[in-house]
């Protein structure tokens, strides 16, 4: 009940239902489970992953002005938006909020995508993994001190591996393809800035080349070649791979 004093001193009695109703509505609203969108949290997680990917892998290989990352970023963002509204619809029909498990499921795609886009290139870039992909697998047991360099462009890739090997294992490097004795001058013309520093350490050296354009036509694009450059003792090797799509 509510009491109020009017001008002539009489007491007026009335119900305060409106006030009580508003108060109850506020309490009810506060008691409702939190179903607010988690889209921005997912976007922040995804942006963090793509940002690191761009800085660690895209810029070093493609340069700071590369826009290649925008396409996969847009696709994953679209997926996250669709997932967000699907989860929102599910919990909109539920009397209970998502809770800790539901929130984890809600944010899981953004977290998993971020982990994948960082872990896969990092794993692929490990020197021993790169060796097995390009040179020979399994790695000869005497191979050591593998170093990887090179550069990617929009349709080109230069990869250089520098390593040491025992002379008896050197033939295993030539086994996967039919290498031919080549000319170091041609290699200098193709990628001078990637080879010069290491070539000085190998002099005098022999060059073994193979053109993979015909042999691996489906995966090579318009031009694909690789070479093995070794010192006379066959203990130091520079492996050069070039792809042009």
UniProtKB/TrEMBL annotation:
The keyword Transmembrane helix applies. The chain crosses the membrane at residues 45-63, 69-91, 103-123. Keywords: Membrane, Transmembrane, Transmembrane helix. It comes from the Bacteria. This is Uncharacterized protein.
């Amino acid at each position: 009940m509510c009491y109020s004093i009017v001008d002539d001193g009489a007491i007026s009695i009335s119900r305060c239902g409106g006030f009580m109703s508003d108060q109850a509505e506020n309490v009810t609203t506060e008691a409702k489970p939190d179903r607010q969108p988690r889209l921005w949290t997912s976007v922040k997680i995804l942006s963090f992953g793509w940002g690191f990917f761009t800085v660690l892998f895209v810029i070093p290989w493609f340069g700071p002005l590369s826009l290649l990352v925008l396409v996969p970023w847009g696709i994953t963002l679209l997926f996250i938006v669709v997932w967000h509204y699907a989860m929102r619809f599910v919990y909109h029909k539920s009397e209970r909020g998502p809770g800790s498990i539901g929130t984890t499921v809600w944010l899981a795609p953004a977290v998993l995508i971020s982990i994948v886009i960082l872990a896969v290139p990092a794993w692929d870039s490990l020197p021993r993994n790169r060796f097995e992909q390009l040179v020979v697998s399994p790695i000869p047991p005497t191979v050591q001190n593998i170093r990887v360099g090179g550069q990617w462009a929009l349709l080109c890739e230069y990869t250089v591996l520098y390593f040491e090997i025992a002379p008896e294992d050197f033939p295993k490097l030539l086994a996967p393809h039919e290498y031919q004795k080549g000319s170091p001058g041609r290699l200098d013309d193709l990628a001078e800035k990637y080879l010069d520093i290491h070539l000085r350490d190998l002099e005098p050296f022999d060059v073994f080349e193979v053109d993979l354009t015909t042999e691996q036509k489906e995966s090579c694009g318009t031009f694909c070649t690789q070479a093995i450059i070794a010192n006379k003792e066959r203990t130091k090797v520079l492996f050069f791979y070039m792809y042009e799509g």
